[in-house]
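Contributing new records

If you add data, match the layout below exactly. Sequence lines come first and carry their own label; structure lines follow with theirs. Keep one chain per record. Anything else will be rejected by the validation script.
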Amino acid sequence: MWAILIGAALIIGGLLLLFSPALGRRPSDPHRMPQGGGTLEPRRQGLRYLGISKNWPGLAIIAAGAILLALGGYS
């Protein structure tokens, strides 16, 4: 039973760790795109924030939680 609770807590903690950069960023700055139209996306953000190298701690915590959930379900 404890393995399931700890596993669920690890998964939730890992998700919060992954979401924290997006939630804690600077406020939205509405601006116009060069192609026309408005956007709330930050300028010059790119896709660097989606890389494994920046998100591996959160992914590792989620994986550990999933393992505990799987092992806790069999006992």
